[in-house]
Design goal:
Blueprint lengths: L3 E3 L9 E3 L10 E4 L10 E7 L4 E7 L2 E9 L5 E7 L2 E9 L5 E7 L2 E9 L5 E8 L2 E9 L5 E4 L3 E4 L2 E4 L4
Amino acid sequence: MGGRKSSRSRGAVTAVSCSMDSDDENVEEVVEGPLDEDGQPHGFCTVTYSSSDRFEGHFTHGEKNGKGKFFFFDGSTLEGFYVDDALQGQGVYTYEDGGVLNGTYVDGELNGPAQEFDGEGHLVFKGQYKDNNRCGECWVYYPACTVVRLGQRLCVWGGKRGRGNDW
């Protein structure tokens, strides 16, 4: 597993999921907080990974359960509610430049409606995600007040031609 998956850059597909897991043998972790009888985080804990990322939140026998927040080495964060070690429901990803992605997560992946704002609070994307990919009808807002509707029809995106979900 080993960490955050993000293909973020303005003008490209934004997909943020988190699969950091204490079961990954390649990632070392330091736990601050209560442990259960098996030495697993249990209750409110801070887990710092060898990648310098850290998670602060509630655990049940080693699995993230309840409100929690990842702090990534690049200054970005991902906050939401975890069920059985996966982000579920509304999540907020804050980019290192202050931009924000508000989205709906199912089993740790973006699935459902989402909105993205730049660092100044301007709406830059509104649409749907399926399995961490923009899907269906989406609206992309450019700084010059230009709005582009992306959907199942052919479109031009960053000089590349393709369907709205083929970025």
